[in-house]
């Protein structure tokens, strides 16, 4: 004779069905919200798992992105590509550029974090070039626009620019006199570097071959900053797993940073000794003061540290380096 076993229904099971229905409702709402958000995203090419659209970027990234935008962007001048796990917004029309750079500039003001750039340039807290948008960035921008790049200050370097042009013309005359070939790209690169070095660090920038060291370090920075770094495309835990592949780049950045720091520290110390020796500067000397003199004079008022000064100087030289690379290509 079969026995019928009756199992009493536990009280907590009475709550299971309502909780399950509530959970399904929440998940459904989240899925609907995600779908609505996806619908609002710009057009995007078909990507691959993990690497996203990295396989679509060729040796000339700007050409690859132009071709992708022409193929996939048919509406508002915006396209979304994922380089690894990092989303990137591609702007391809003047109207879209105005919306990004003017209308919503505060949203796009911060640059994406880069461990290599941080290793090169005193970290995100001191680095002005890649610092996140905030109070520190606004203070340094105010310092640069108010004291370093004013029309009066730029015009004060007119004589220095004339002297550097005269040096270039003298080299050309000497080369022409003996019928020697001249590498114009190299000469323009040297001129650009020397003009910026003189404005940033003063007329003694050629002491101990510092101008040549500046050029060498600028090239190193350009290669490291523009090079392929896995951490820039796979941040977070995945970057930790791939750390063995990025350690080499970070070690090179650390070596370059040490060389930059020694060079900038020596130049700043030279300026401090001259300021101490000539504490009562004339109006003419003050007018011809270089970037380092200016920043040392306003250091306390703006609350900037020595590393802040070095980071600003490095950014100015790297901007010169961008011109250096563009002239040489």
UniProtKB/TrEMBL annotation:
Signal peptide: 1-29
InterPro entries: Cyt_P450, Cyt_P450_sf
Pfam families the record matches: p450
Listed name of the protein: Uncharacterized protein
GO terms assigned for molecular function: metal ion binding
Top-level taxon in the UniProt lineage: Eukaryota
Stated family: Belongs to the cytochrome P450 family.
The UniProt record lists the keyword Iron: yes
Keywords from the named record: Iron, Metal-binding, Signal
